[in-house]
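Dear colleagues,

For the upcoming journal club I promised to circulate an example of a predicted protein-ligand complex. I picked one with adenosine-5'-diphosphate because it came up in last month's discussion. The inputs are reproduced below in full, followed by the predicted structure.
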Amino acid sequence: MASIIELNDATKSFGRVNALRGISVRIDAGEVHCLLGDNGAGKSTLIKILSGVHKPTQGVYTFEGKPVELTSPREALDMGIATVFQDLAMLPLMSITRNFFLGREPRKRVGPVQVFDSGTASRITSEELNKIGIKLRDPDQAVGTLSGGERQAVAIARAVYFGARVLILDEPTSALGVKEAAVVLKYIVQAKTNGIGVIFITHNVHHAWAVGDTFTVLNRGTSYGTFKKAEMTRERLLQMMAGGEELEELAVELDLIAKRDPSEAGKLEHKVAEELDREARGTGDKH
Ligand SMILES: Nc1ncnc2c1ncn2[C@@H]1O[C@H](COP(=O)(O)OP(=O)(O)O)[C@@H](O)[C@H]1O
Ligand SMILES: [Mg+2]
């Protein structure tokens, strides 16, 4: 299958900080590509390149097989690459309708002037949110009155409505409770079913495993590689996320302690086991 977007051998430096090194990813239509990695791994930097916020320091970005140089998020959006950034780009005091259309409001003629067609806008907003299962009491209520999950839903519905080919979601579930996260995961699957290529960033392996077709794991600016679901297991993904090296270092340390004082080592092992267990249950969310 042909990819929609592809990034090959990309590097991004901020002054002396090498945020990304030698990263290659491709996004296909109708797939959920999960981007995993610990805080500071470079996930946001990578999607900022894909969404036109940053230019890669090195590397080639291709859209439908042709090299492109994006100069702004607007340009990416016009090509059908819609991004919901980690700090949701919404205006909390503005209405849901206004947020849905942000910068693309339908207009109507009143005498000699064009004005915002609020009736049409409200109707479309209600219809589109209805399609993904959200019944609005009033599309003119402030977006700030919605829950975190509902705001993600508005952002996803907006991307689908405006014909996104690629939908990039930066940690859409990390600030949510279990039920709300499940609802957002459902929207992700709906977007994929509509043929959209979804990039889903998370550090929750369980959320990723539930909806992902493809997984790329970043670690301190480099990639552990990209894997299809069939060639991956959830346990392996958890291991990668925990950082194989760190666990090995820890094992050596534990071993040393055990040789000196077996009772100390026992306590420490117990603590580590608890920590890993908490991570496995998906309650170890950080931001
Ligand atoms: N605009 C920037 N200027 C300088 N350093 C940055 C900038 N953006 C990100 N970084 C650095 O790049 C690294 C990766 O950050 P980021 O992509 O936000 O990681 P993640 O989203 O995986 O937590 C971090 O070390 C971060 O401090
Ligand atoms: Mg981030």
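Two points we might discuss: The domain at 3-93+142-232 is CATH 3.40.50.300 (Rossmann fold). The CA atoms of residues 38 and 203 lie 6 Å apart.

See you all on Thursday,
B. R.
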